[in-house]
Amino acid sequence: MNIFSLLSPFISYPVLTLKLGNHVAKIGSGITPRGGQSVYLDSGVPLIRSQNVHMNRFELEGLAHISDEQDEKMEKTRVFPKDVLLNITGASIGRVCVVPDELCPANVNQHVSIIRGDGSFDSEFLS
Predict the structure, then answer these.
(1) Is residue 105 part of a domain?
(2) N or C, fewer C-beta in 10 Å, the chain?
(3) How far is it, in rounded angstroms, from Cα 96 to Cα 112?
């Protein structure tokens, strides 16, 4: 059962529902770099954590950075402009935003999921 089936008696027009999995190129989460916070740098490749993902906005405060070498090891956690980020653990679970163009290249840790569309929907709409 979904929300539309519950609301259908109150909606006077047809509602199209789609499965997200059929319209994405990637759904996955990140990893924490080996060494955790001890490998964070003052500058370098951005590492997005759940504290950076807010409801429909990205927060730069507290953004961690990793080395180029660590970034290469984390290539599967790399995000691109227009990817949707979703917090999947902790008190901030469910917070979602779109990756800002100017942030890339960047990676996410294990508390953040990447949803990369296949071009069939607007990332801002999904978030």
Answers:
(1) yes
(2) N
(3) 9
Cα angle: 99, vertex 26, 115; to 5 degrees: 35
Q: Which domain holds residue 91?
A: 22-126
What DSSP string describes 4-32? HHHHGGG--S------GGGGEEEEEE--P
pTM metric for this prediction: 0.86
Question: What are the CA-CA distances from residue 70 to residues 30, 103, 105 (Å)?
Answer: 13, 17, 13
Tokens 């296949």 locate to 118
What's 89's domain CATH number?
Answer: 3.90.220.20
